[in-house]
Amino acid sequence: MTAATPTPSFQGPLGVAKTLTVWYIAAAVLFIVLGMFAIIEPAVAGLGVTLLVGWLLSFAGVTHFIGAFKGGGAKHVIFQLLIGIAYVIGGLYFLIHPLLAIGTLTLLLAAVILAGGVLELVWFFRLKGERRSGWVLFNGLVGLLLGMMIWLHWPSSSVWAIGILLGVNLLTTGITRLMVGLAARKLVAASR
User: Helices in 69-97 by DSSP H: which ranges?
Assistant: First the structure.
């Protein structure tokens, strides 16, 4: 009987950790590249987000249709069917009219950022006098400024807002993950 030999990269927990950090760093680099692309081409990134939302809404609608017939009585079936119809209609709207849907998403984004800014300001006034509460005020003011900027320049902000914000988010996420992955890699190397 022959014994199976493990692959070289999976020899014990350190080998597994080393392999995982490689994949983690590769994913971080992918985030950075995608973030830079979204910042350079915000309209294309915004269109991509809109189409993704359209497909996700459509699939959610289909799952509600399937879930409607899993039991639970007439009220459950009707409720799930109505939700499914709403999701499918929304998804088809995003897929058939992606340029209009970018405008809709941009208005929703502006409203969410404005609401977040207001909530941050409320939180600041509750924390007032606490250490480092100025950062909460700063974040709230930036949220209000950004939300108002998107709102007041709508519909022209539809071309850049979603793509730029997605790009910045992907870029910062990628850089953060890269730093964490490199630190983990150093820990794995030091543990050998």
Answer: 73-96
